[in-house]
Amino acid sequence: MMKPSFFASASALCLGLLLAIGVGFEANAAAKCIKGDRKAPYTIGWANIYSVPTWMKQTQGTIEAEVETLKKQGLVDKLVVTDAQGDANVQIQQIQSMIDSDVDAIILIAGSSTAPARVIADACAKGIAIINFDSLVDTDQVTAKVNTDSSQWGDQAAKFLIDAIGGKGKILILNGPAGVSVSDDRRKGADAELKAHPDVTVLAETNTPYNVAPAQEAVTSLLFANPEIDGILSLGGALSAGAVLALDKQGRDQVPITGENARQFLELWKEKGLKSWATMQPNWLGAFAAYTAVQALEGKDVPAFVKIPLPVIDNSNIDEYLARAKDFPADGYIYSPYDEELFKKLLAQK
């Protein structure tokens, strides 16, 4: 017969092992919102704010491709996709539906920086990995935020344009939709340079969707009202293409212009010999968000914010991008290459 002291010792040992296992798991599940109680294969929700712009379609394409890779690795079972059609309130309802169906992760571009805070906090409390990229939310109740530095984007664009026009002149500023964080932050980022150069006069500004047609229409109206323009500070690629087409249609001389990696803009840049500079919000941020969500669910340490370096496109490398143009939609974005090794390096940043 075993002594009571043996049972006490054995019980203590088992308890110690259980505690050790629990503590060890929690130590591995270091990312926010992660409780360690979810197992692969996972269901990922993609709460899309709108799917119409080609940039969004390309971004969803990278998400779907990454999910297929993760499926082959036995890490993901299903991708659930919603489309709020530009309505932040609808996006909130769709996120709530994902929570109710107990998805394991939600990746999103926020339609509002403030409105989704409550529903996102609810998802986080339930152990759902939340990866927010591109347009960010004003809450830290997420697993990770992923973005380029939009303020740096605006600053670099303004520096290029001001230098290109010799530090003085009349310019137009083209912004994306008001209230969208990436658009607002790019514009704020340009402020310091503009204020430091009082001889640069901002004639007018626009806020339009990131599409060529509305940008061309808006710039056309501004051209009628402003016969003298020395440069255009465009903070979006389709906006730049629209501006170039508007100038062309009115028979106006092209002026220095900043932009983004939109294929149409890059092709116009080359065709017309524009004095330009561009950067990009890589579409593969979507794929990286899906990858990051799974890494967090698997117990990996994930940074609260992952900063994506801004690639620069200028006359020294524009031909490299245009050489790959055929692989992208005519109205799409020629984004930089990516792979899992790049994703690992980005997650390893401190």
Mind sketching the topology for me?
Blueprint: H1 4-28, E1 42-48, H2 54-72, E2 76-83, H3 88-100, E3 105-108, H4 117-125, E4 129-133, E5 144-147, H5 150-164, E6 169-175, H6 181-195, E7 200-207, H7 212-225, E8 231-234, H8 237-249, E9 257-260, H9 263-272, E10 276-279, H10 285-297, E11 305-307, H11 318-322, H12 340-347
Parallel strand pairs: 1-2, 1-3, 3-4, 4-5, 5-11, 6-7, 6-8, 9-10
Subcellular location: Cell envelope
Signal peptide: 1-29
GO cellular component, one term: cell envelope
Explain how this protein is built.
- The protein has 350 residues and is of the alpha/beta class.
- It folds into two domains: 42-148 and 283-308, 3-Layer(aba) Sandwich (Rossmann fold), CATH 3.40.50; 150-279, Rossmann fold (3-Layer(aba) Sandwich), CATH 3.40.50.
- It contains twelve helices and eleven strands.
- It has helices spanning 4-28, 54-72, 88-100, 117-125, 150-164, 181-195, 212-225, 237-249, 263-272, 285-297, 318-322, 340-347; strands at 42-48, 76-83, 105-108, 129-133, 144-147, 169-175, 200-207, 231-234, 257-260, 276-279, 305-307.
- The strands form three sheets. It has a six-stranded parallel β-sheet, with helices on both faces. The protein has a three-stranded parallel β-sheet with strand order 7-6-8, sandwiched between helices.
- Helix 6 links the parallel strand 6 (169-175) and strand 7 (200-207).
- Helix 8 crosses helix 9.
- The longest helix is centred in the N-terminal third of the chain and has 25 residues, at 4-28.
- One of its GO terms (molecular function) is carbohydrate binding.
- Keywords: Signal.
